[in-house]
Structure formats: C-alpha cells, structure tokens
Design brief:
Layout (H helix, E strand, L loop, with lengths): L1 H15 E2 L2 E2 L5 H21 L9 H20 L10 H11 L3 H27 L4 H12 L1 H12 L3 H30 L5 E2 L2 H26 L9 H27 L13 H10 L6 H24 L1 H8 L3 H13 L1 H12 L3 H30 L9 H18 L3 E2 L1 H19 L9
Antiparallel strand pairs: 1-2, 3-4
Helix pairs in contact: 1-2, 4-5, 5-6, 5-12, 5-13, 5-15, 6-16, 7-8, 7-12, 7-16, 8-14, 8-15, 8-16, 8-17, 8-18, 9-10, 9-16, 9-17, 10-16, 15-16, 17-18
Length: 446
C-alpha cells in the first residue's frame, strides 16, 4: 500500500514544479491539495513503520500514535452499552478482598465477564474481516469458546472435574438449543412470509460429528454403570483418553476438510441478490480497527477473562450454598450463557440479515468445536496435570446431550428454518434448564 502511495505522489510533485519554479494551471491547485493529503498518509505509514520524513517532527508522530490509540479504545470500549458491566469485574475482586460473600463475588464476576466475552467476539469479527469467510467462521467459533475453555482449565487446575464436564456440556446445549433457537426465531420473525434456507450438507456434517462426540461420551458411561470394566476405575479413564485422542484427530481432519476442500461453507445460499446489495454487504463488513489492533485486543480480553475466571471458579461452591442452587445448574446453565454471549448476539444478528449459514456456522460450529475439541482437549490437559478427567459425564448428562443432538439433527435435515422451529428449540432449552435445576449429582462411585 505504501508503494502505491509513493508512486502516485511523485508525478503530482513533478507537475507542480518545473525548473525550480511553480507552474499553476486550472488543475494544479487541486492536484497540489491531493498531493498534500497523499503525503500526509504516506508520512503516517512510514512513521508507523519506524521511518522518518522531513518536515514531520517526533512530537507529530507521537500525536498521531496517541490519536490512533485513543480511537481504538473509543471504538472497542465505549461503543457498546454492554460495556457498562465492565466495572463489575474489578468490583468482584474488591468484594473478594474485603468480604467473604462468595455469592456476590460469583455474581459480580459473572456480570464482569459478559461484556468481555462480547468484546472478544467483536475483536474476532474484526480480525475475520481480514481473512476469508471460512477462516472467519472458524475464528468466531474458536474465540467464541475461549471463555468456556479458560474457565474449564481453571476449574480443572483446582480439581473441580464435574464443573468442567458440566460447563462444557452446558456450552453445547446452550449453543444448540438457545443460540440456534433464538437465531431461527428472530430470523423467522424478520422474514415471516418466507422460509429461510441454509446449506444442508454443512449441517449434516456437523450433526455427524456431534453424534460421534455422543458416542465418545456414551461408551465410558455405559462401561461404568454396567460394571463391565476389566480394571474398575481405570479402564474407563484409559478409554476416555484414547477416545479423546481419536476425537482430536477427527476434528483436525474436519478442519482440513473445511479449509482445503469446502472453502465456501459459510457463503450464503440465496445468491439472487443484485450487485448493489452485494456492495452494501461489503461495506457493512469493512473493519473498524486494524489487524494489529484486533490481535492486541484479543490478547488483552483473553488475559482479563482468564484472570477474572479464577475468582468465578473459586466462588461457585459458595454461590451454590448461598443461593440454594445446585452446582449442576450453575455449571450447565449460568456459566455457558455468559460464555456464549458473543455467539448469541452474532447468530441473531446474522439471522435477521438473512445470513443463516453464518448463524449456523457460529451456533452449530461452536457446539461441534466444544464437543470434538474442547472436551477431548480438557481430558488431555487433565492427563498432563495428573487429574482424572474422563468422558464419563454420568447417565443423566449423557442422555440429555443425546436427545438434544437428535432433536437438532431432525430440525436441520430439511435445510430450512422458520420462527416455529426456533420456538421449539427455545422451549426445549427451558425443559433442560428446569431438569438441571432439580438435578443433584450422585455420590462418587455410583
């Protein structure tokens, strides 16, 4: 880009001066004005790369740099009303230091993570503008699940294996039922006189991967509850670790399939729009921050979520005792709703723009990533840490996941959606939430 700027500036400078004397015609004033603007941009580019230009002082470069930083902070931190919840993060730390009220610490931490998860999704979308559609969809799914993975690793480090299992399970259920249901429902209301369509083959592939994940979780649970292990307590752990490695290989093959073989999975099917509307879409997707700024904000948001997650995980038991709510409900329902804030907002927004393939990629793609990568990854990390993290999620949780995958797979097989399908998914999620509200974990070994 800077080479083009330099080449376009040189001829204009030569036209403005000949034999050392200025020669002004009818067009020269506007050309000189354009030259000044071009040289200003060129100066800024060279300054940002560490170069120097005559006539531009060090104070000027510092001023331009500070202006860029202030602009980026204003866009990221002050352009969304949800960011009003950000002070609850430091407030949670303050309450933890000054009091022993774990319920307030958990509640404030939960509120503080909500805008961070949303801004993490925003920075990911900005970075995705510099990549292709498929890579952008994978980035959205990956960093959209970063919050759940960070919370899970902190819980795994302190030995809260059931919280890890249930929070990851809750993330899958939330994405498949609540996020996808809200996307179908809002998109159906926005286009109430027609059925929205999406890529059925992509949905079938994701449904197959989710059923494979159910298989990986079902066999260790059945092995445990039928008491048919060769070595009691050790065979299911060994099977879980082996199955996790297989699932990671399968997910790696799926990524290769997406990136190399099917590079247009996130392109919308309804191509009957005109060239004018296509240009409008391109304008809508123009990034607001640079690539370097997006990467920097991703690092900052991830680090702050990781720091705040420690207080959140440590306060789970205290919040359960204070509020008289089962830990299973907190892990399966409350934590994933916070972690999926970015996916929820993004999926609904794209569905209302009739870009249902992107909504499906965010919701179902995120569920697939948690099931085929997040859960096996935590098993491997627990193996490295010496924690007995396995794929035995207990019969109740495994049955809920199995039924959920079947319901969603049946609703996706036609390749169409409407508000009634979305309403059914939302109501199914309410049944799941009520089930975990009255569910108590069985004692260990049963």
């Amino acid at each position: 880009m800077d080479t083009k700027l330099q080449l376009s500036a040189v001829p204009q400078l030569e036209m403005g001066s000949h034999d050392g004397r200025p020669v002004l015609g009818h067009e020269d004033k506007s050309q000189l004005h354009g030259t000044d603007n071009m040289m200003h941009k060129s100066d800024f580019i060279h300054m940002s790369e560490g170069g120097s230009f005559p006539g531009v002082s060090c104070a000027g470069s510092v001023k331009m740099l500070s202006h860029g930083i202030c602009r980026s902070i204003k866009i990221v931190l002050f352009s969304n009303k949800l960011n009003l919840l950000m002070p609850f993060g430091p407030l949670a730390i303050l309450v933890h230091i000054l009091t022993d009220n774990q319920g307030l610490v958990f509640f404030f931490s939960l509120l503080g993570i909500i805008p961070l998860a949303e801004r993490l999704g925003y920075a990911t979308e900005q970075l995705a503008c510099y990549t292709g559609a498929t890579v952008g969809g994978l980035l959205n799914a990956t960093f959209g699940n970063a919050t759940e993975l960070i919370i899970s690793i902190h819980a795994l480090r302190v030995g809260m294996i059931r919280v890890v299992q249930q929070s990851l399970l809750g993330s899958i259920l939330s994405n498949m039922l609540l996020v996808l249901g809200c996307a179908f429902f809002s998109g159906g209301l926005a286009f109430i006189k027609k059925e929205q369509v999406f890529n059925k083959s992509t949905a079938v592939v994701n449904s197959g991967l989710l059923l494979m994940a159910v298989m990986g979780l079902l066999f260790p649970a059945v092995l445990h509850y039928t008491h048919s292990e060769v070595h009691f307590g050790r065979s299911e752990l060994a099977l879980s670790r082996f199955s996790s490695c297989i699932m990671l290989i399968a997910y790696g093959a799926y990524l290769y399939y997406q990136l190399r073989t099917q590079d247009n999975q996130y392109e919308p099917l309804n191509e009957e729009v005109g060239q004018g509307s296509q240009n409008v879409d391109d304008d809508d997707e123009e990034p607001e921050i640079t690539k370097c700024e997006a990467v920097l904000w991703l690092a900052v948001m991830t680090a702050w979520i990781s720091f705040l997650s420690e207080y959140l995980v440590d306060a789970i038991d205290g919040a359960s005792n204070t509020w008289k709510i089962p830990v299973a409900f907190i892990s399966v329902i409350l934590l994933p709703i916070v972690g999926n804030a970015a996916e929820h907002a993004g999926a609904v927004m794209f569905a209302m723009k009739d870009k249902l393939d992107i909504s499906l990629g965010v919701a179902i793609g995120s569920s697939t990533q948690i099931a085929m990568f997040g859960i096996p990854f935590c098993v491997v990390v627990g193996w490295i840490m010496g924690r007995p993290m396995d794929l035995n999620f207990r019969l109740f949780e495994t049955a809920v996941l199995f039924i959920t995958v079947l319901v969603v797979a049946f609703l996706l097989q036609e390749g169409t959606s409407n508000y009634f399908k979305g309403l059914m998914l939302i109501l199914c999620y309410l049944i799941v939430a009520a089930s975990f509200f009255v569910h108590v974990d069985p004692t260990k070994g049963t």
